[in-house]
Design a protein that fits this description.
Helices cover 43% and strands 12% of the residues. The protein has twelve helices and five strands.
């Protein structure tokens, strides 16, 4: 990555500082505290929210250091609660191309981001309608594995489900057929809701038709149904089989979904979910990586 230092990078630092200073700590789930000299966030708090080191973020605000990656820009946009226009401006200032809508660096709907910030006691994440994970809370990482490292077509869990056998390891084999049918029906519903010329959805469907006979056979069945409420069994490598309800909240345009997981009634899943807070965000098996 190139060194920073131009007038544009100086402007990037000023822009980050202005956005940081306008946010109240309570808006991102942080305590206000009695010793704050300014109403906005501290630099170290933004760094923590974005998953960056304090030194690195300090360099960004100074307009120095290295050019931020697209993933870091997306993380900063989420941490600073930027609007879509502000997010695009941040990419321009950093000299990075604005990501295509729907990819892994998509701007998270602000309302989804706010809700996710407040869901601290249950696993939750925001995904696109094509099952690209945009952001996870720590408990979702502990339950499902870190989904932030996938790029391109592999960013979609549906793509990995039908093209990479390892992606299914988290689910009991007896449930694979039902999950496959549900994924295909959901994808057909999502594609229909998009514009008929939508390249992202059509490219994904075309690729899966060419590479997965299972997908092709299910697609030919023309089943269509959004996944709104699911009951899932998950094979967690540390806590064993856990049964959860997966609930969905859709954005107004249907392009994003907030998923959260609750223990299934009549099982011991409540206690197992509590163990996730002990296990923390250790890496778990998600061999789609």
């Amino acid at each position: 990555m190139g060194a920073m230092g131009s007038a544009k990078y100086t402007e990037l630092g000023s822009f980050l500082r202005s956005r940081r200073e306008r946010i109240r700590p309570a808006e991102v789930g942080l305590p206000t505290g009695p010793r704050r000299r300014v109403p906005g966030l501290r630099r170290e708090e933004v760094a923590q929210l974005a998953g960056a080191s304090v030194d690195y973020y300090n360099e960004l605000e100074r307009g120095a250091g290295s050019q931020p990656s697209e993933q870091m820009i997306a993380a900063l946009a989420r941490a600073l609660r930027l609007s879509a226009d502000e997010r695009d401006h941040l990419y321009h200032l950093a000299g990075r191309p604005v990501p295509v809508h729907g990819g892994a660096a998509s701007h998270v709907h602000p309302g989804m981001s706010d809700l996710l910030q407040r869901l601290t006691s249950t696993p939750a994440q925001v995904i696109t309608d094509l099952h690209v994970t945009l952001v996870q809370n720590p408990l979702a990482v502990a339950l499902l594995g870190d989904q932030s490292g996938f790029r391109g077509a592999r960013a979609s869990f549906v793509h990995r489900w039908f093209t990479e056998p390892g992606a299914r390891q988290l689910y009991p084999e007896a449930d694979h057929d039902a999950q496959s049918r549900a994924f295909v029906a959901d994808l057909r519903a999502a594609a229909a809701r998009r514009d008929a010329k939508d390249a992202e959805a059509s490219s994904m469907i075309s690729t899966l038709l060419d590479t997965s006979s299972e997908f092709a056979a299910l697609w030919a069945g023309h089943e269509v149904a959004f996944r709104r409420d699911d009951r899932k069994r998950l094979n967690h490598p540390a806590i064993g089989l856990i049964e959860v309800n997966c609930l969905s909240l859709f954005s107004e345009d249907g392009r994003q979904r907030l998923l959260w997981f609750t223990p299934a009634v009549g099982t011991d899943s409540a206690g197992l979910l509590d163990l996730l807070t002990v296990i923390g965000t250790q890496d778990i098996v998600d061999s789609a990586r």
